[in-house]
Every structure is written in C-alpha cells, then in structure tokens.
TrEMBL record, chain A:
Entry annotated with the keyword Phosphoprotein: no
Transmembrane segments: 25-43, 55-77, 97-114, 155-174, 195-218, 230-253, 274-293, 313-334, 346-363, 375-399
Name of the protein this chain belongs to: Quinol:cytochrome c oxidoreductase quinone-binding subunit 2
Keyword set includes Transmembrane helix: yes
Organism the protein comes from: Acidipila rosea
Keywords, in A-Z order: Membrane, Transmembrane, Transmembrane helix
TrEMBL record, chain B:
Lineage: Bacteria, Pseudomonadati, Acidobacteriota, Terriglobia, Terriglobales
Annotated source species: Acidipila rosea
UniProt keyword annotations, A-Z: Membrane, Transmembrane, Transmembrane helix
InterPro entries: ActD (IPR021776)
Segments passing through the bilayer: 57-75
Protein name (Swiss-Prot/TrEMBL): Quinol:cytochrome c oxidoreductase membrane protein
Length: 426, 180
C-alpha cells in the first residue's frame, strides 16, 4: 500500500547552486596554485617537493575518478536503491578522466622522463651510481633486478594502457546510461544485462590496472620494497574516498530538488553503513600488512615501515590511524550520526582528509632527505597547498560534469522504491 | 509473591500495521504512557508511535566490547610480561602488535554475546507467563498476521469504560479485556 508516495520532481537537473560550488572550487584552486608555485620557487630544492606533492594530489583525484568508475560498476552488479541514488554522481566522477590524465602528464614527464621523482629513472646505470655513493647496495640490486619493469619506457606504456582502457570504459558506461534512460521501461532487463556484462569484467580489469598503476606511480618510489596487498589497499582506499565524496555530494544537493525528495534518510543511513564497512576493511588490510611484516621482521621488508615510523614519522603514522580509522570508526558506530546530515558530513570530510594524510605518509618517506627524518621545510608546506589546488580544480570539473545530466536516472525499477515514504506501512 | 489479580489491560486487534500505528499514535497523543504494541514482525513506526525511541542494547554491546578488549589485552600483557615471559625471536615481551588480533576477537565476541543476552534480559526474557496469552485472538494472531495495541491497567489514566471507548473509536477488529 504505497499511500502518500512522493512524486518525482519535474526538475531533475542539478540545482543552480552547483555553479556557486564550482566558482568556490576555482577560487580555492587559483589561490592554492599561486601559493604552490611561489613555494616551489622559495623551496630551492629544484622543484622536488613540488612534484612529490603534485603526485599526492594526482593520486587523490585519480582515486575519485577511477574509484568512482569502480563503484559505478559495483552498483550495477549488486543492484539496490543506494546505487540508483549515487549513479549520476559517480558517472560525473568518471567523466573527469581527461583532467586526471592531464594531471598525470607532469608525473610521467617530470617524474619519470626527466627523473625528478623515481630513483630507478634517475640511476638506470646502477654500477656507476653505486660507485659514486648515490644509492646503496640494496637499491642498486633492486633497480638492476627490476629493470625490465621499472624503466621509463615500460612506465609510459603501462600508464597509457591503463588510461586508454579506462577511457573506453568511461565512454561506454556514460553513453549507455543515457541511452538506457531514453529507452522504454520493458527494455530495462536488456540494459541491466548489458551493464552487468561490462561491469563484471570491468571490476576485474580495474583491480589489475589499479594494481599496476599503484605499483608504478607510488610503490616504485622505493624500488627495494614490495607488498602484494599494495594494490588492494589502494582499491579499498579509493572506495573509502569515493563513498565519502558521494555522500558529501548528495547531502549538498539535497538542499534542493530533486535530491530533496529522492535522497531519503534510509538510503543515507545505508551509505553511512557502507562507509563503516570500508573503514573496517581499510584498517584490516593496513594492519594485516603491518602485522605480517612486523612478525616476519625481514631486512627486505621492515625498513619500509621503519622509514615511516622513526625520526618523527611515528607521529604521522599514529595520526594516520586516528584519522583513517579511529575517528570514523567510533563516530560511525552511532546510528543517529549516520542519520543526521550535518554530522555525517563531518565524518566524510575527516575521511577525505585522512586519504590525503595517508598518501603523505606513503609518499614523502620514500625520499632520502625525508626517510626517518621528518623535518619542517617549505617543501613540507607545499604538501598543504599543491594537492589542495589539484583537488579544487578537480572538484570544479566534477561539478561541471554533475550539471551535464539529470541527477536521477529514471529508467530503473528502483525509482518507485525510493519515492515511497520512509518506513512504508506494508 | 502474591498472585496478581484483576485486569491486566485492554487489548485491541487490528488487521493492518497502518491502523495499529495510527491508533498507537492517537493513544500516545492523548496521554497514554503504559501501553504496548505487538506485531508479528519488527515495526519501527509502532515503537516510535508509543514514544519508544532508543534502547540500551547498543550501550550494553559497547560496554561488553570494551570489557572483552580490556580482558584479552590485559591477559596477554600479564602472560607475556609478568606471568610467563618468553623470548620469541628477540621481540619485546610487550608486543602490542601481536596482541591486537586476539584482543580484537574478544572485543567482537564479548560485544556479540552482550548484545544478545542484554537484549534478552531487557525484554524480561526468559519469561514463563504473560497475561496477554490469556486472550485467544492474541495467541492465534500475534505471531501470524494480526497487530495489537494494549492499554495497560497500571496507567494512571486507565478507567475501564473510558479506555474501552477510546479503543473502539480507533475502529479495531475487536477489543478484549485481559485478566492477569
């Protein structure tokens, strides 16, 4: 008995205030860029920290874009009302791929080709470098041994292949979604099968490509170390960040139609629970990796953690656990918090901040001047502005994409369900 | 303990959850506080309608979890540091990293058990007798397809005739008086 069922609002486009969000993001991005470039000049470190912090910003934006694509495919596979609600936001995230690719180019050009970031690119001739004490014996051995994989040509080929495949997926996932909405309701099973087929294989492909990307772009900063769970940690991290961002988007949009009607407390609660699951999965993987390496105590693996704990880094690591797990976990335990928009928003901001904090902890200690030696410099301050600039510009582009389509996909059987009043009396 | 006698309450039967919730809201709105709803499946609206907003099970669950955490972490620390210190691969006696997993397991175990048993205790279970089972329609319908609202006699507002009139105004299927 669906009495008092809500009607779908006539206006399904993004409300006008999204333009204001975009303006705000652009202003933030512009200010942060000016500061970032100024600090780059002031730092006198040959722009080293600028590109490290650029890498951080790129990885976060990349996580939103490609993580959004993964979440989009997962919701096609799992079905459910939550998926219908966030579908258009996720599509908007995937369509930021061109910008994310532009952000990648400096990483590839300056980081790998011009040898600013990656030690294996800087010293391909390990014997010479070892003789001049530019690298130590372990690094020389690792770089020489991993040469077939860690060289500039493979780096570019793998990266371009990843982006090419993701571009194909972005194109079809977005195109079919519009075609499906233009189609009639009886054809829905056809589209569901079609989306399931592309998504099932897509999720598998995504995990493989993401692992490759995570290894080349971040893990290879320290070629002596490896971890088989690394790609999976990035995967979970992307889900974590994307969920936080999508909840923030929906809460922001719910000030006006159509989300005001469509985004019910029930689904907000569900998304909050999903966040909680990702929070647990994230600490589970991170702690499992730490526990195994700690127990093994092998000289091949343990230095990676010692680089990130000793010399002041322990403070960053402890705060990482607090931001990434302790705070979201304890807050999300509360049922009320997940149902109150203003409070859930705070948790989502903490979660996105935690992603950046974690990435700082992963990236900066790879470099000789910073490992086991956390010290203040203009370079460290660059981490506070360059990623902000990148993320702000990414947000602006995301909001632009959000305005391109109606916010609710209409040709879906779940639409009737989200229009029912909450706690419908059977 | 003396045997309680007299009227336990007035029991109204409804066919649909919607009617029950409406009647429960009306009763709560007109000042009834000692009342309860009985449904064959969980119905959050019914709980909300009679002013039952939160329960203490989550608190018991949290306290149980913290107790489990403290118990296991304390046990491991005592064993490894004071009770039976062993040198395992040269690692420190107090190896908090290795203690985390059992401590985590006990947190889950204690939290789960406290939630389950705490819920039973707060529901007053196990209970061998409940006056409502004296009503035949309750026996047959409460776990099947009927929805019940009971105004209990220990409510200060309870006057038999007025209570009956109030319930009959809510157009129930029937209103019966239930004895202890």
């Amino acid at each position: 008995m669906a009495h008092h069922a809500n009607t779908l609002p006539h206006e399904l486009d993004a409300p006008a205030f999204v333009d204001a969000w975009r303006t705000r993001a652009l202003i933030t991005g512009a200010i942060a860029s000016v500061l970032g470039i100024a600090m780059g000049f002031l730092a006198h470190d040959d722009w080293e920290h600028f590109f490290r912090s650029w890498l951080l910003g790129f990885i976060i934006c990349f996580g939103f874009c490609i993580g959004g694509m993964a979440m989009l495919m997962v919701q096609y596979l799992s079905g459910g009302k939550w998926g219908l609600l966030i579908r258009r936001s996720l599509e908007a995230m995937t369509r930021t791929l061109p910008l994310v690719f532009l952000m990648f180019l400096p990483v590839g050009i300056f980081g790998a080709s011009l040898k600013k970031l990656y030690i294996w690119a800087r010293y391909p001739n390990t014997e010479d470098a070892l003789r001049h004490h530019l690298i130590n014996a372990e690094q020389a051995h690792a770089i020489a041994f991993k040469k077939p994989m860690l060289n500039v040509v493979s780096f570019w080929w793998v990266s371009l292949l990843c982006f090419a495949i993701w571009a194909v997926y972005t194109f079809f996932l977005n195109r079919w979604s519009l075609q499906r909405d233009a189609d009639t309701a009886p054809n829905v099973p056809y589209w569901q099968t079609k989306f399931e087929n592309i998504s099932g294989f897509g999720v598998l492909l995504y995990s493989i490509l993401l692992t490759a990307g995570a290894i080349y772009w971040v893990m290879s900063l320290d070629p002596t170390w490896y971890s088989t769970v690394y790609g999976l940690q990035f995967l979970v991290g992307q889900g974590y960040g994307v969920l936080a961002l999508v909840i923030l988007t929906l809460i922001g949009l719910s000030k006006a139609e159509p989300m005001k009607t469509v985004f019910r407390i029930t689904e907000q609660h569900d998304l909050g629970k999903l966040c909680f699951a990702f929070t647990m999965l994230n600490i589970y993987l991170a702690f499992a990796a730490f526990l195994i390496i700690w127990s093994g105590n092998s000289p091949e693996e343990i230095p990676w953690f010692l680089d990130r704990i000793r010399g002041g880094w322990g403070v960053i690591a402890t705060l990482d656990v607090m931001f990434h797990w302790l705070l979201p976990f304890t807050l999300l335990l509360s049922r009320d918090l997940k149902r109150i928009k203003s409070r859930l928003k705070v948790v989502c901001y903490i979660m996105i901040f935690a992603r950046c904090w974690d990435m700082f902890w992963l990236i900066e200690p790879n470099f000789a001047d910073a490992r086991r030696n956390l010290h203040m410099s203009i370079g460290i301050l660059e981490y506070c502005v360059v990623p902000v600039a990148l993320i702000a510009f990414w947000m602006a582009y995301y909001f632009t994409q959000l305005k391109q389509r109606p916010l609710v996909a209409t040709n879906d059987p779940h639409l009737a369900e989200i229009l029912e009043p909450e706690h419908a009396h059977a | 303990m003396p045997v309680r006698e007299g009227t336990y309450g007035l029991l109204a039967e409804f066919d649909t959850p919607g009617e029950l919730v409406r009647a429960a809201k009306a009763a709560y709105g007109s000042g009834w506080r000692r009342l309860d709803c009985y449904t064959p499946y969980p119905l959050e609206e019914a709980a909300e309608a009679i002013g039952f907003h939160r329960d203490e099970v989550s608190l018991v669950c949290l306290l149980g979890g913290l107790l489990g955490l403290a118990a296991m972490y304390g046990l491991e620390t005592w064993i490894s540091v004071w009770g039976y210190p062993l040198n395992i691969g040269g690692r420190p006696y107090y190896s908090w990293v290795a203690f985390m997993i059992p401590a985590y397991e006990w947190t889950i175990l204690y939290a789960g058990l406290s939630a389950a048993f705490g819920m039973l205790a707060m529901c007053g279970l196990p209970s061998l007798y409940h006056p409502l089972f004296n009503a035949p329609n309750f026996r047959n319908g409460a776990t099947n397809d009927k929805f019940f609202l009971c105004l209990e006699a220990d409510d200060p507002k309870f006057v038999l005739d007025e209570a009956r009139k109030f319930l009959e105004d809510q157009s129930p299927v029937s209103v019966v008086e239930v004895e202890y």
